[in-house]
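Sat 14:20. Reprocessing the chain from the morning session after the first attempt stalled halfway. Input below, unchanged.
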Amino acid sequence: MKSLNEWLAAYAESHQNPQNKKIHNIAVPVIFFCVVALLWKISFFLFVPIALGAIFFYYTMGQKVAIAGATAIGAAWLLQMIIGFGFFTLLILFGLAWAAQFYGHKLEGAKPSFFDDLKFLLVGPLWVAKPLLDKYEIK
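Finished this time. Tokens:
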């Protein structure tokens, strides 16, 4: 199993262009939020196992990473409970964020990491949160 730093280094390989980084710093959190919110809106019984699966993946990188991941999922869920975006609004935000990311990868000249391994879909939020992870010494 890869460590957090190994995953982040592998993800960073296709995220060197400054514009692509800026795009991802906005689009990845939007996508993360939309996925959590959409799963919740679709079904509690779909949301729970997927959230637990994501937390388990984060746990393979360490207990602190799992806690950070669970906290992010919980924060996204809480934000949706407060804001209450509708299903179609979430789909539009999700689609726009993905379009932005693909544009960023066009600028980068590199394919998205998840084309090689779907786990990178869960690594992206950690990459964006790296300054926070470093601040709180989550390794």
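Residues 29-135 form one domain.
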